[in-house]
Amino acid sequence: MQAPTGLSLLQTAGRAIQLVSLSAAAIWLMLLIAASVSVAVITFSATQFQTRWANLTLNGGALSVWKAEQLREQWAASLNLLETAKKALDDNRQYLSKAIGMRNAADRERTLAGQQLSDSQASFAEKIARVDTDLATKFRTAAVDQAPSLVYGALDGLKDKDPSIEQDLTNFVALREKYYTADNKLNQAKSEVESLSGLVDQGQKELQAAQKGATLSLAGPDGEELPADQRTPIENAIYEFNAMHSYLWGLVYKFALAPSDILVLILVISMGVLGSSLQLGYVYTTEYARKSAIFYIFRPFLGVITALVVFIVTKAGLPLVTDAGKLGGNAPINPYFISFLGIISGLLSERALEAVRQLGASYFRGGNEDGDPPRWARVNLAAEFATAHRDAEALRRQLTAKESEWSDWIQGKEPLPGSVQRMISIVIDKPRRDLFTDIAPDDAAEPGGGQPDTTTAHAGASGAGAQAAAPEPSAASRLPASDEQKAREPDQK
Question: Can you name the CATH fold of 367-448?
Answer without folding.
Answer: 434 Repressor (Amino-terminal Domain) (1.10.260)
